[in-house]
Structures are given as structure tokens and as C-alpha cells.
Design goal:
Layout: E1 4-11, H1 15-24, E2 35-37, E3 40-44, H2 50-55, E4 60-64, E5 93-95, E6 98-101, H3 111-121, E7 127-135, E8 140-148, E9 153-158, E10 161-166, H4 177-184, E11 192-195, H5 202-209, E12 213-218, H6 221-233, E13 240-244, H7 247-251, E14 256-261, H8 271-276, E15 278-291, H9 295-308, E16 311-325, E17 328-339
Parallel strand pairs: 6-7, 11-12, 11-14, 12-13, 14-15
Antiparallel strand pairs: 1-3, 1-4, 2-3, 5-6, 7-8, 9-10, 15-17, 16-17
Helix pairs in contact: 4-5
The chain binds S-adenosylmethionine (SAM).
S-adenosylmethionine binds next to helix 5 and strand 12.
């Protein structure tokens, strides 16, 4: 049975004007639905605002109002055939106010319906794009617009830092926020960082926020454009130097304490260049995507490669392990390297 709660009863022709006034003084009870009775509209109000409402010259009445159902998932609103509901994606990426969603082929013809349901269900989402995967040398999402604004630029937040990105022009994955932050915990004031595959600059900027100086390289002009915008947004423009360049060209010219290598399908091929930037000792933060049952062999192979180049290596930590595909995960290997010492393999697993 519905309980009675306070409201105001107004003529229909002035209802919109009164609704705005109630909204302005934050008196509207948005958890309940207004109702129409004959030529009148009854607005539910918040009890504690009764006096303010009376000051507007309105009389309080008691009535029953239907409670608004809170939508917990877009799935409650989406209209797809019953036998296909099991294919509805349960997760997606939200970058600022833009959603990137992978749609299974069974639901391809309902992609727009899914996009519209997401917009309806979540106030914070202003645009929805079908994510057709990360492609090409710049690792950029191929996108198809589904619903909401046709806009691809947004402000994405990670642990209090703000990043302007164009999701159609630079690589971005909100799932890496924790990795960006975690890496920066290794970095101290005054240290130098080489971010070989910088993208819009999260690793470099997190490190700069800790008082380090970051050299960042990327071959994608948009990545370097947003890297610079983001150094300004986060007020670290004097502690980040970006190069629109292949990282291999810059590797010979800088000496650093930390090298970040986030090109998960290819980082390992760049180890030789990363090590050139370490004078005596430092850390390599290498990200790889690997089958879970093969990660141990992969780590051993990385360590052997580094040692062949004349460094002693310690694996300090394996971070993340986030699922990437069935039985494959995204791993962060944090390795301490010391030039010219004897082999001392130390694998924590
Ligand atoms: C996976 S994204 C990483 C972006 C960023 N580090 C992050 O965490 O969001 C890899 C980036 O490496 C860049 N890239 C690929 N090959 C490169 C190279 N040889 N030298 C410099 N950048 C490269 C791509 O353009 C892309 O922006």
C-alpha cells in the first residue's frame, strides 16, 4: 500500500512554472512521481522543505505518490528479443561521459537500441559508441556511433587527475587507471622517467605529479597533442617533455631511472632500446598480454633477454593480471636492473 506524503496541488496551466520554482528551492521529491488528477497536477515535495514551499504561497496537501523505480542496469530498459538477452554485454568502458561497448554479433542489429538504453539508464553518459577493437600502429579504437551526442572528445578522470582525450584518435583504457597510479608509487621526487609509448600521457603525468621529470614519446601526433594539453590541465608542463617520435630515436639521447613500456603486444622487442637509457641501475616497467598459463615462461624469457644485454635483474612485482580475453591477462612486470653484474634470478610467483 502506498503511504501518504506531502505535495502541492496546482492547476495544469501553471504546473511547469511551479515545478521550476520547486526545483529551484530543491523542494521536489525526485524519488516519487508527480500525478495528474483532472485539471490539476500534484507534485511530491520533501517534508523538510515544507516551510519554504509555503513561503511561495502554496498549500501543502497529503497524497499518495508512486515511487520511481531506480534503474540498476540498462538491461532493464533495453528492448531485444527474449532469446537474445543472454548476449547483452554486462560490462563496457566509460571514458568521461562516453561509453565504448563491444556488441556481440548476435546483437549487431540491436546495437542502436542498446546504445539508447544506456543513455536512458545512466545520467552520466552522453554518447555511446560501438567499440570494434583497437587497431593499427597507434592502437586506436575503431568506433561506430550508436546513441547520444556525436562527440568523441571528453575529460577522463583517474585518481583525481584530469585527462582530455579524443577516444577516436588516441588509445585510452579506463581499466589502466590503477596501473598508471601504481607505477607512480615506484617513482620519487627528482627521478627521471622515459615513457616510451606515452599515448595521452597518463604514466608521464602521474610520475610528474610525484616530482619526477618525464620524457614521453609517441608516433601518433594526436597522442602528443593531448599529452601537452594534459600537462597543462594537471599543471606539470615544466616536468614533462614530449617527442612526436619513434621511441627508438630518443632512447639513445636520454638517461633515466625508470622506463615505462606499455605496448602490450610488442614491448619486449623494444627492451634493447629501453636498456640504453639506464646508466647504471634503474627500473623497467614492462606491460604484456599473455596467456595465464604461459606468464611464468614469458617472465623468464624477459629476464634472460635483459641479462643477455649485460644487466642483473630482479622481478620486484607483477601487477594487474586483469583479464584481457578468455585465459589471457594484462600483466605489469616491474623489474629492477643493474648494469654489469652476475646473474641472480629472483622470480616471485
Ligand atoms: C597501448 S598505447 C599506450 C598508451 C598509454 N601509455 C596508456 O597507458 O594509455 C601504445 C602507444 O604506443 C604508440 N607507439 C607505437 N609504436 C611506437 C613507437 N615505435 N614509438 C613510440 N610510440 C609508439 C602508439 O601510438 C600508442 O599511442
Amino acid at each position: 500500500m502506498l503511504e501518504q506524503s506531502p505535495g502541492v496541488r496546482v492547476r495544469r496551466d501553471v504546473a511547469e512554472e511551479i515545478r521550476k520554482k520547486l526545483h529551484e528551492i530543491e523542494a521536489l521529491d525526485t524519488e516519487r512521481r508527480p500525478k495528474t488528477v483532472g485539471g490539476y497536477v500534484v507534485f511530491p515535495i520533501r517534508e523538510e522543505k515544507s516551510e519554504d514551499v509555503q513561503k511561495l504561497g502554496l498549500t501543502i496537501v497529503y497524497d499518495t505518490f508512486e515511487r520511481r523505480q531506480k534503474v540498476r542496469s540498462y538491461k532493464e530498459l533495453v528492448d531485444v528479443p527474449e532469446n537474445l538477452r543472454k548476449y547483452l554485454p554486462t560490462s563496457y568502458d566509460q571514458v568521461g561521459d562516453i561509453v565504448l561497448i563491444k556488441i556481440p554479433s548476435e546483437l549487431a542489429r540491436y546495437a542502436k537500441t542498446i546504445g539508447e538504453a544506456i543513455i536512458k539508464a545512466y545520467k552520466s553518459v552522453k554518447a555511446v559508441y560501438w567499440d570494434l577493437g583497437v587497431k593499427g600502429p597507434y592502437r586506436v579504437h575503431e568506433l561506430r556511433h550508436l546513441a547520444g551526442e556525436k562527440r568523441t572528445v571528453t575529460i577522463h578522470k583517474e585518481y583525481g587527475l584530469r585527462f582530455k582525450v579524443d577516444v577516436s584518435k588516441v588509445y585510452v583504457s579506463p581499466r589502466l587507471a590503477e596501473e598508471h597510479r601504481k607505477f607512480s608509487e615506484y617513482v620519487s621526487q627528482g627521478e627521471k622517467v622515459f615513457d616510451m609509448f606515452s599515448g595521452y600521457g597518463p604514466f608521464s603525468i602521474f610520475a610528474a605529479k610525484r616530482g619526477a621529470f618525464s620524457y614521453a614519446t609517441d608516433i601518433n601526433p594526436y597522442a602528443i597533442h593531448y599529452l601537452y594539453e594534459n600537462t597543462l590541465l594537471n599543471k606539470v608542463q615544466d616536468r614533462v617533455l614530449g617527442f612526436l617520435s619513434d621511441c627508438r630515436k630518443v632512447a639513445g639521447a636520454v638517461k633515466v631511472d625508470h622506463v615505462v613500456m606499455n605496448l602490450p603486444h610488442g614491448s619486449v622487442n623494444f627492451l634493447k632500446y629501453a636498456l640504453r637509457t639506464i646508466e647504471k641501475e634503474g627500473m623497467i616497467h614492462l606491460y604484456v598480454i599473455e596467456h595465464d598459463e604461459k606468464i611464468k615462461q614469458r617472465i623468464e624469457s624477459v629476464i634472460r633477454t635483459i641479462e643477455k644485454m649485460g644487466f642483473n635483474t630482479d622481478l620486484v612485482e607483477i601487477s594487474c593480471g586483469k583479464p584481457y580475453a578468455p585465459y589471457q591477462s594484462y600483466y605489469g612486470l616491474h623489474l629492477r636492473v643493474l648494469r654489469g653484474f652476475q646473474r641472480n634470478l629472483n622470480i616471485i610467483m
